[in-house]
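ETS domain-containing protein
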Amino acid sequence: EINLQVKSLQTFYLKLTLICMLQVTFFPRTLYPPHISQRSSDEEDHGARSPPLEVSDEECLRDRVSYIPTGELGNKKKIRLYQFLLDLLRNGDMKDSIWWVDRDKGTFQFSSKHKEALAHRWGIQKGNRKKMTYQKMARALRNYGKTGEVKKIKKKLTYQFSDEVLGKSHLDRKAYI
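Predicted structure tokens:
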């Protein structure tokens, strides 16, 4: 019985690994891993158990699962907002939401119409349960001003990466899963 549960978990993590190899960039929902169910005293009396989570390959790929358990698939660092934005800018992803004002200086701007869509994507990337808004994301960007990675420019919805971020980010680029 325990061997079946272990095999179920191994299958689940193998599917996650395969999905990670696809390097999908947008995930509409998050799936949490099955936990080995523990019997309560009531369950022991009646012999009831929670059924294991079954996910077909097609469903797994269709839903584009973005959850990776802590400690699994290597020791990956969480991506930081400035890295996420810089990668979007360099790849041209979401160019209707964010674009370079002056690439050489590291200055970029958000679209007033599409900034919420970008913030929502950042929230999904982080794995947040609550909806990310532009207001919350902008607060994080302003906090970077204290540490020096990104500073706010006087022009509306415009920010600038530090020289350090622009210089080292190409070494730190990772696939965002």
